[in-house]
């Protein structure tokens, strides 16, 4: 993944969700697409965020390693608190994992109460991604 200007603050969180055992290449390609859609580079990302049931998911950990950032994991209960702020709530996701969205909710949860989605959920065959931007106090 390509980087951007090193003198800018890392203000973006990449939210990722995926099926168990998802292909790391597929998830990485989706992550790259999300960053491209946000018009940002890898150096603009401060963290990846996901649901805690994916804590050991090889594909998510591989993307974090490629970007050189940590992953924040949240419970389904915590992610469900973000439902009013997400753009693509899913009853199917709620039935499977207990929250109405993973990628958007996780990105927002990690980026803070004032964060805004800059890339709503995008999907591949086995994964989802979203990007949230943290807001600085002076903004």
List keywords for this structure.
139 residues; Nucleotidyltransferase, domain 5; disordered N terminus; single chain; five-stranded mixed β-sheet; 5 helices
Task: Please tell me how large the radius of gyration is.
Answer: 13 Å
Can you tell me the residue ranges where pLDDT is under 50 for at least 5 consecutive residues?
2-7
The CATH architecture classification is 2-Layer Sandwich
**Number of discrete helical segments:** 5
**What is the total domain count?**
1
Order of helices and strands: EHEHEHHHEE
| Proportion of beta-strand residues | 15-25%
Shape verdict: globular
Output the CATH homologous superfamily: CobE/GbiG C-terminal domain
Summing up helix and strand content along with how strands pair, one would put the structural category as alpha/beta
By DSSP, the count of extended strands is 5
In the CATH scheme, the class would be Alpha Beta
Arithmetic mean of pLDDT: 93
N- and C-termini, Cα separation: 28 Å
Helix fraction bin: 25-40%
**CATH third-tier fold name:** Nucleotidyltransferase, domain 5
Placed side by side, the strands forming the largest sheet appear as 3-2-1-5-4
Largest sheet: 5 strands, mixed
């Amino acid at each position: 993944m390509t980087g951007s200007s090193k003198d800018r603050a890392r203000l973006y969180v990449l939210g990722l969700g995926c099926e168990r055992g998802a292909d790391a290449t597929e998830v990485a390609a989706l992550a790259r697409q999300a960053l491209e859609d946000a018009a940002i580079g890898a150096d603009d990302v401060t963290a990846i965020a996901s649901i805690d049931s994916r804590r050991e998911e090889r594909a998510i950990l591989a993307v974090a390693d490629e970007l050189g950032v940590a992953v924040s994991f949240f419970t389904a209960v915590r992610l469900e608190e973000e439902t009013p702020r997400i753009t693509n709530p899913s009853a199917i996701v709620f039935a499977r994992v207990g929250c109405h969205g993973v990628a958007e909710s996780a990105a927002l949860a990690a980026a803070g109460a004032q964060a805004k989605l800059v890339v709503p959920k995008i999907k591949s065959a086995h994964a989802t991604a979203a990007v949230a931007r943290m807001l600085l106090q002076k903004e």
